[in-house]
Amino acid sequence: MTAPDWLTARNGGLTKGLTDRTWLVTIAGEPQYRLDLLPAKGQYTCSVIQTNNGRRLDDGKVYPKPEAALTGGLEELRAKLGW
Questions:
Q1: Is this prediction's pTM over 0.85?
Q2: To the nearest 5 percent, what fractions of the chain are helix, strand and coil?
Q3: Which one of 4, 35, 64, 73 is at 20 to 30 Å from 43 when CA atoms are compared?
Q4: In the structure, what pLDDT confidence band is assigned to residue 56 with cuts at 50, 70 and 90?
């Protein structure tokens, strides 16, 4: 998965976390948000967590596949940041 344009335009990136279901959103090389792909109701959700305080930012939406959950989680983050 590559970082979306709205993120790279702000010196951001997307890197794989410690597991195959964890991704880190970095800004200026520092991890700012953690995206965790989790099972939910036979499908998937993407929790978006701010790394400095553990605050969860996502709305708990459910997606049919892990890839869709990651894309959806990034879109939820973009909306929360107002980007």
A1: yes
A2: 25, 40, 35
A3: 4
A4: very high
